Each structure stands twice: as structure tokens, then as C-alpha cells.
Amino acid sequence: EEQAETLRQLGADQVVIIKNAETDRQGALALRDIAQKEQVSVAFDAVAGPMTGLLIQLLPIRGTCYVYGRLEGDIKGVPPIDLIYRQKQLKSFYLKQYLVGDGFFATGRRLS
Length: 112
Prior knowledge:
mainly alpha, three-stranded parallel beta sheet, 3 strands
């Protein structure tokens, strides 16, 4: 809840807390409703584990989930039908490389 409050203070319009991606049906439904209303087609996942499966399932056809952490361990619950027939994509990136190597901070150095 502390992190949710920080996000709200930073300007987040909507914050959904899901304590367990496998059992928190209310949180999953709230996230689904927001994703549909806002037409979300991309998700960023620092948790992995069953959260990745939930995010993939909530994305629309041709949606993409980027995984950049594994707080909950290995990815679980990604239905192959979503990847094959619904053309959803599961991608990854290494956050440190993005921030330090070729990404955000490197861009800032080039601009100065």
C-alpha cells in the first residue's frame, strides 16, 4: 500500500494492487477493466512468476508484455494459445543496460 500511495503522489490516475496473481480475482478483474477501458496493449512486468501469465491473458490480440525482472521467479501461466493464435508477444530487456548502456542515461549524455 505504501508503494501505491507513492505512485498516486507521482500522478498515477489508477493503481491496482494484486497480492497474488494466481488467487486475487478481484484485483485481476479491476486490472482487466482498466486495461480494456484505456485500451492498453503493452505491459511492463518486473515481477514475473504468475503475474506474467495474468498480464498476457489481459492484453488484447497482438499485445506485448515486456519482462524486465523476476521478483517472483520463473514465468508461469502463459497460455500458448495467446502467443500462437492471438499473436501476443512476450519480450524482455535488461534494465541496467537500458539505463546505463544504450538507453536513457546514454541518450542524456549525448544531448549534453
